[in-house]
Design brief:
Blueprint: H1 12-43, H2 47-53, H3 65-73, H4 76-107, H5 113-122, H6 132-141, H7 158-182, H8 186-194, H9 199-210, H10 212-228, H11 231-236, H12 248-251, H13 260-280, H14 282-290
Length: 296
């Protein structure tokens, strides 16, 4: 038989195309990583060395002192805890509420099904800055229990920042989860219904375990977005001790001059939690993003 016993070689054109694609991806990866690598390089240099020889010069010495100074001067630990009190509840509440709405939209047919989904999705199209003035008015006028806010208002409270993040992120999560749940065979919930399973059982014990890839992908994205947010904390909080980790960078800036080496070290410290979350959820995150990519 012709060609028997010989390895099948790809056509020359395909081989060149693969090489060009790989080279292009490699260049993009290097360009993407270049700012991060440059930040690491600057953070390891002393300010005196940088001022004397410039940023493009080879360093005379490398040190970790900038990281120690950034940790102390920026009060990193305190702001880490503030960000955790905002991010963790916001992510959990957002995913729970979004999954409930997505389950109803994906599994129940009623007249306003599509309209409900469009309302949640349309909320993501509205710029957040447009709502700043009415939100500020609401936050400073609505009274809340003292256990929810020591100020007696949503303004200048952790609960207020959690609430606004949940409100703005729920729409996107409903859109993603409802589309994901539609890929789950309806026969599963129909069989559970025949066996007498309640709606809560269908949602919690059947649908939610199958949504782990989507939930992991959304949890990673939400953690990054909420953790890195500074706009709402800057406008809806006034007490410095309550501000999230992104405000720690402000503590590292001088009044008349900025130490770029110190700022670089502080930025890298602040980025560590989001990197840890991604590494923990990496497999599920990739699975959630690539789900359905091989379907016809």
């Amino acid at each position: 038989m012709k060609g028997e016993g010989h390895p099948v070689r790809p056509p020359p054109r395909k081989g060149r195309a693969r090489f060009a694609t790989g080279a292009f991806i490699m260049v993009l990866a290097v360009l993407w990583m270049l700012p991060l690598l440059w930040t690491v390089f600057v953070s390891l240099r002393t300010e005196s060395d940088t001022n004397a020889h410039g940023y493009l010069s080879w360093p005379r010495s490398l040190t970790l002192q900038n990281y120690s100074n950034a940790w102390t001067q920026g009060q990193i630990l305190m702001h880490f805890w503030n960000s955790a009190k905002i991010t963790v509840p916001a992510v959990i509440i957002t995913l729970f509420l979004a999954s409930c709405v997505a389950f109803v939209v994906a599994r129940f047919s009623f007249r306003f099904n599509l309209i409900l989904l469009l309302v949640f999705t349309a909320g993501n199209l509205l710029p957040q800055q447009v709502l700043l003035a009415p939100l500020f008015k609401i936050y400073t006028s609505v009274a809340v229990p003292n256990w929810l806010s020591d100020s007696g208002q949503l303004y200048d409270s952790i609960a207020g920042i959690v609430l606004i993040n949940v409100a703005f992120q729920t729409g996107f999560c409903v859109f993603v989860l409802s589309n994901f749940m539609r890929t789950i065979p309806e026969e599963l919930t129909e069989a559970a219904l025949v066996d007498g399973a309640s709606v809560w059982t269908q949602y919690w014990r059947i649908t939610m375990p199958l949504c782990r890839p989507a939930l992991a992908a959304l949890a990673t994205l939400l953690t990054t977005w909420i953790y890195n947010d500074f706009f709402w904390a800057l406008t809806l909080m006034s007490t410095g001790d309550k501000l999230p980790i992104t405000s720690a960078i402000k503590n590292l800036q001088g009044e008349y001059a900025q130490n770029a080496n110190l700022l670089s070290a502080g930025s890298l410290i602040i980025a560590v939690p989001t990197l840890v979350v991604y590494l923990i959820l990496q497999r599920q995150f990739i699975a959630g993003l690539t789900l359905g990519s091989t379907k016809g």
